[in-house]
Specification:
Blueprint lengths: L1 H23 L5 H19 L2 H10 L13 H41 L6 H15 L2 H11 L3
Helix pairs in contact: 1-2, 2-4, 3-4, 4-5
Length: 151
């Protein structure tokens, strides 16, 4: 939750300054304030979304893609953004999961080749996983990777 706040803070500040505050000061109508806020959020989502996801949802709805990405409407960008974030989360999960699976295999093979069948391979590999995660400064790598994935 804290990472979400850190990532969205610049966008939220911009929405507040350019949409909510002028509406509260009666400089914008409610419709114009909502439109301005949606435009700011849409631009954030467009920076995080690949063209492939946008084209997928346009094809599903039988809509023709506009000549420029900026001409897309908010409701066209939102599902593509969600799909893009889910895809990115799976990619990060695999990048984290794969080395740990390899460690499980190596520990299991090592114990099996030594003829040690009384000790669970998962017990040994769990300790090794935690040790490697701490030694590699895993939390900093994970958090910086997440924050840097947003442009």
């Amino acid at each position: 939750l804290l990472l979400s706040i850190i990532v969205m803070l610049p966008t939220a500040v911009k929405v507040h300054q350019e949409s909510i505050q002028p509406w509260m000061e009666k400089k914008l109508t409610l419709d114009k304030a909502i439109e301005k806020g949606q435009e700011i959020l849409k631009n954030f989502m467009l920076r995080q979304t690949r063209n492939q996801e946008i084209l997928l949802f346009l094809q599903i709805r039988n809509q023709k893609p506009p000549s420029r990405r900026e001409d897309l409407r908010f409701h066209q960008v939102m599902p593509a953004f969600v799909l893009s974030e889910i895809r990115r989360a799976f990619e990060m999960g695999i990048l984290i999961f794969f080395p740990f699976v390899m460690l499980d295999l190596l520990v299991g093979l090592g114990l099996y080749s030594l003829g040690i069948h009384t000790i669970s391979a998962q017990t040994i590999s769990f300790v090794l996983k935690i040790t490697i995660f701490i030694m590699a400064d895993g939390w900093n790598l994970l958090v910086s990777g997440i924050l840097q994935s947003f442009q």
